[in-house]
Design brief:
Structural class: alpha+beta
Shape: globular
Strand content: 25-35%
Largest sheet: 10 strands, antiparallel
Number of strands: 34
Length: 531
């Protein structure tokens, strides 16, 4: 388990016990973890199977899809090749030929401040089935078709995978050399990541490692993925490769010109507000300490790495199933630091639970109780849990919900956004009510895509279609009069983009003239009624 296995006469440390607990706390086919302090490996451990059907063990040298952890390597390569990334700005504009606004620059892409709508989310609006192929042709078509941005570049944060695909494609074109070769020559070889490679094709890994969907109760099955990706999520690496990366980070911590120190520098929004994301790294504190890192995920794969610079502590977690790698990493950090979280005091009952609309993004905001100490916020691409505070507010990191005399507010400093939420009338929908005049066919001129809403025996269902196919029909969820959610439980990417908000538009006579469709990753899309 540990770098030097403890003898039977020595009592296990708290970190030993935390590692032993992982397969029970996060059950699945297999996994691997590493913990390093000041460059020394404290834990290098794997368990279970990389391929349960073929009985291939999971080991520290098993190849793994690192997914979005790739983004920091793409940004490091950008800075290594172009110390001033603005040299790539014209290349970005050239790849967005239909954009009717000023194109974002390379730094906007590196910091997820581009304003582009995420192409995995847009693929669902284009009707892509969850297991469909999405390769160079589909990616280029979706990216180049962009006509508008969802915010001015540099003013907000929104996760956008094609930011990093654009960067890697441009690097490859400028160098006239494959992105995989650039990674090997400029990063993997110097760092000592011997097995690392560009695992662009998500259908299979060369050593047979599988990612799995399912649960212990329902059983696990190999996940089917048919995406071809590059600088956004294409890194393949073993636990030993990631240990080499973490060692490199610590060894070069005092060199401002080193790869990691350059991508870990503070970044800002336009106007000077600090940004919690930049150069492919999250910079939000963990357990009250300065931290940097990132997660990675695809159907069947979960990973997370965290580095605490003041403690010189690194943690890497790899699961070939859908367990929460971030929480697993936090459990190891807590054990390595020898900390115990105090029990929270009993908070007051919030008097602002309910349904709202965010006036800036047009997205629904649903807040309900998650536990005696937490509320659940459904707004982004996955539900967020916030701790209820003694003053009646709720918070998680910088994210905060609270009431003032003006109303209920949502502060999202990571997005550089503060909104006074518009309350929605809460009621249960009677199936005979006029909300069913929403049934019809709608067209989005921005995407040249369609939304179909049908009354199927007294229940409303909706589905998207476009150049990528015909998406499945899902039952709509009534949030409030003229505000509905269209669920997206499965998608091309690791997790769906979240429920789509359908905000109904009515004409002067009260008839439905259209809907505004959006999720956190792709907002503000207008659909007009055509039938």
């Amino acid at each position: 388990m540990t770098a030097s296995s403890p003898s039977r006469s020595r009592l296990p440390t708290r970190l030993d016990l935390a590692v032993e607990e992982l397969p029970r706390a996060f059950p699945g086919p297999g996994g691997a973890v590493a913990v390093l302090r000041q460059g020394e490996v404290l834990v290098r451990h794997a368990w279970g199977f990389a391929n349960a059907e073929r009985r291939i063990p999971f080991t520290p040298r098993t190849l793994f899809r690192m997914c979005s952890i790739t983004k920091q390597f793409t940004c490091a390569l950008v800075l290594d090749a172009y110390p001033d990334p603005s040299a790539l700005n014209a290349d970005i504009a050239a790849r967005l030929p239909n954009l009717q606004q000023a194109a974002p620059g390379a730094l906007h892409l590196c910091h997820n401040q581009s304003g582009l709508r995420d192409y995995w989310a847009l693929a669902m609006l284009h009707g892509a089935p969850a297991e469909s192929a999405f390769a160079e042709v589909e990616a280029a078509r979706t990216i180049s078709a962009a006509k508008t941005l969802q915010f001015a570049p540099g003013t907000r944060y929104s996760y956008c995978n094609q930011n990093f695909r654009l960067l890697s494609d441009i690097l490859e074109a400028r160098a006239d050399n494959a992105f995989a070769d650039l990674l090997r020559r400029r990063i993997f070889d110097p760092v000592g990541m011997e097995q690392a490679f560009l695992a662009a094709d998500t259908r299979a890994m060369p050593d047979g490692t599988e990612g799995y969907e399912g649960s212990p109760a329902a059983g696990f099955r190999p996940a089917e993925n048919r995406i071809l990706w590059t600088g956004d999520a294409g890194l393949g690496a073993s636990l030993d490769d990631m240990i080499a990366w973490e060692r490199h980070i610590y060894a070069t911590r005092d060199d401002p010109a080193s790869l990691y120190q350059r991508i870990a520098v503070p970044v800002d929004f336009e106007g000077g507000a600090p940004a919690a994301y930049g150069f492919g790294l999250n910079r939000r504190p963990e357990l009250g300490r300065a931290a940097s890192g990132h997660g990675g995920a695809l159907r069947g794969w979960r990973s997370h790495r965290i580095y605490l610079p003041e403690e010189g502590l690194s943690v890497v977690v790899l699961f070939n199933h859908l367990s929460d790698a971030h929480n697993a990493a936090l459990s190891l950090i807590t054990a390595a630091l020898g900390e115990t979280a105090p029990p929270p005091p009993q908070p007051p009952e919030p008097d602002w639970l309910g349904a709202y609309l965010d006036p800036e993004t047009g997205l629904s905001v649903r807040i309900d109780r998650a536990s005696s100490h937490q509320v659940r916020l459904r707004y982004g691409h996955s539900a967020e849990r916030l701790e209820v505070q003694a003053d009646g507010s709720a918070a998680s990191g910088g994210l905060r919900l609270y009431r003032t005399a003006q109303g209920v507010w949502m502060d999202r400093p990571q997005d550089n956004q503060t909104s006074c939420l518009t309350p929605l009338e809460a009621r249960d929908f009677d199936q005979g009510e006029s909300g069913f005049d929403l049934a019809g066919l709608y067209h989005c001129d921005e995407l040249d895509a369609a939304l179909s809403v049908v009354d199927a025996g007294g229940a409303l269902y909706g589905g998207f279609s476009g150049v990528l196919g015909q998406g499945r029909m899902e039952q709509l969820d009534a949030i409030a009069p003229d505000v509905w959610a269209l669920p997206c439980p499965r998608a091309l990417d690791h997790t769906p983009p979240g429920d789509w908000t359908l905000a109904v538009k009515r004409d002067g006579s009260g008839g439905v003239s259209g809907v505004q469709v959006g999720c956190w990753l792709a907002r503000g899309l207008s659909y007009r009624r055509v039938a």
